[in-house]
Predict the structure.
Amino acid sequence: MAGDESLVAEWKTLYATTLPALAKSRDPAQPKWPVSLDHCFARIILDNTVGQGSQQWDKVIAKPAVKNMNDDQLRAAIELGERISRGEINLCELDQISLMCRGKNEAKYAKSSTGQAKKRKAVEDNDQPTKTAKVEKQQSMLDFGTKSADDKGSTKPKNGVKPDDLTEAQFIEILEQIQKHSSLTPYRRRLYTVLLSVPRGSHTTYAAMSDYLNSSARAVGNGIRNNPFAPDCPCHRVLAADGSIGGFHGDWGKEGKYANDKLKLLRSEGVKFDVKGKVVGKPFRDFHEFEHLQQELKHEAT
């Protein structure tokens, strides 16, 4: 029996019109749109909601879906579709899950993963200044996460600085590098400054940062992927909205080439993950931009 007519209409519009239009325009909400046809979006979303990511949807309900989905299934499908449109969840990962349900995952993604990683690496390299990137990387490779003898007894932030991450002098140095970097857009300068406020032992998400910055999760992902201040500016602490590992060094998801490196780094800082690889605990959202320190740096420069 079909669900509520208004829910059915909303679902039809979402998978048949809204999402295909976003895909065809290459909307920045997603780093990649692996499909663009309406029936493909329906397949991906329904396999992940009705099929719960473990089986294809038509093993659960009869075809056609719109005539056999109940209200709860319609709401779940609409919610997931809207999250895709907002960039809160990675469509490629959902597609992989759907294809896995149908025994087709390896055929589509395994052969292309190496090439895609190389493409993403090329984009990262091209985004950074060719002559200064190595110097900046060396300048930012401070002893991240260590403490001096003076810092060990301190637990309270001083001037917004987290003493368990960097000494105050080191922190001011990296903040100054961010503020004075000539090739950064104002958005990226603000992004990296905000990222500094995520403390050791915590994690946040692309969606949480995009909410604070009033931007798309895609824009956050792009900026983090091209972070010239790592590891002092801790992009490894940013995870996917569903608590999965997200991206690292240009690869995405738990099967990414560097996923284990990111997991080890986070675990060494005290972040915990469950048996499914999802982070335990709520994401950090208490972002700030160290306005007082920024004003001091500007005053010193004049």
Observations:
- Residues 110-164 have pLDDT under 50 and may be disordered.
